[in-house]
Amino acid sequence: xxxxxxxxxxxxxxxxxxxxxxxxxxxxxxxxxxxxxxxxxxxxxxxxxxxxxxxxxxxxxxxxxxxxxxxxxxxxxxxxxxxxxxxxxxxxxxxxxxxxxxxxxxxxxxxxxxxxxxxxxxxxxxxxxxxxxxxxxxxxxxxxxxxxxxxxxxxxxxxxxxxxxxxxxxxxxxxxxxxxxxxxxxxxxxxxxxxxxxxxxxxxxxxxxxxxxxxxxxxxxxxxxxxxxxxxxxxxxxxxxxxxxxxxxxxxxxxxxxxxxxxxxxxxxxxxxxxxxxxxxxxxxxxxxxxxxxxxxxxxxxxxxxxxxxxxxxxxxxxxxxxxx
Length: 325
Ligand SMILES: Cc1cc2nc3c(=O)[nH]c(=O)nc-3n(C[C@H](O)[C@H](O)[C@H](O)COP(=O)(O)OP(=O)(O)OC[C@H]3O[C@@H](n4cnc5c(N)ncnc54)[C@H](O)[C@@H]3O)c2cc1C
Prior knowledge:
Elements: E1 2-6, H1 10-19, E2 24-28, E3 41-43, E4 46-48, H2 60-71, E5 75-77, E6 81-86, E7 89-95, E8 103-105, H3 111-116, E9 121-123, E10 128-133, E11 137-141, E12 146-150, E13 152-155, H4 159-165, H5 173-178, E14 182-191, E15 201-205, E16 209-214, E17 225-231, H6 233-238, H7 244-259, E18 268-278, E19 288-290, E20 295-297, H8 307-324
Parallel strand pairs: 1-2, 1-13, 2-9, 6-15, 13-20
Antiparallel strand pairs: 3-4, 5-8, 6-7, 10-11, 11-12, 14-17, 14-18, 15-16, 16-17, 19-20
Helix pairs in contact: 1-8
The structure holds flavin-adenine dinucleotide (FAD).
The site of flavin-adenine dinucleotide has 37 residues, from α1, β14, β18 and α8.
């Protein structure tokens, strides 16, 4: 059996790792490296996890998976000084500890994708643009190159993009086309001298930014002092098409106001726009599988915008295909 997986994020790689026991699996990703939103950017001497910030485990299956990753030293515990803020006022603080563990990729978030793709047949910088059924599934990339035939295809692209790839007779087409993700802007700031902040991670209410991480405080980061700041999904969605210089001007002013330090003086500043960053909790199946067409769609967006959800969705897609095989 041959299976193609579109997307080398956590959901796609989780499915690939399970299914390679019963099939020949090829994973395709348009990016230069695996990991999807488990992402890291570099600007020497700074490093930024500009997508997922940390993850926690509620489901025992995900907790077991994290035990494997912790043993392999691919994830580590982040004992952050955490603050909750209302705009610029700290309203609560606590230290993260082992009673409710907050994990991060180690020594950087994109280490997970690299680890999970070891031994997986990976086609990077390969954007799949269409699927066609022809004695099995054929995939075409943006350079018109064909791959296949495959017995099954799993698509882990965000729903707004998956809907373009999946045929209209896909059994779950209506659900995919009705699902919308939210955007985000990640501001990455590097400083020659550390800022004396009273927290390593802060959740912010009543502002256009929702999150501040001192990225360099995460375990194993031997880098210059670096901050990652996320805009609220609401502000991002309203400004996805705003020119980047205006986005930058607004976010730098907002960050300076909230954290009480003028960040216009940062040694390094970059902003990444995530058009499809996050999604609220969804009802229904954790993976959308059509056993007649032998097509599946999965990803965090089937469950909730969480690393754990991506794992559970990829696993659910693989289990359904194992059962159908
Ligand atoms: C700013 C931000 C902050 C976040 N913070 C947290 C957090 O603190 N905690 C938490 O638990 N979660 C967080 N998340 C969510 C978390 O990152 C995701 O839940 C998880 O990484 C999703 O994995 P996935 O495999 O479902 O999707 P992705 O990681 O998005 O993988 C999908 C992959 O498909 C590829 N792809 C798409 N279309 C094509 C195509 N046509 N051809 C080839 N490849 C394609 C993409 O390049 C991508 O690599 C955050 C996400 C963002 C963006």
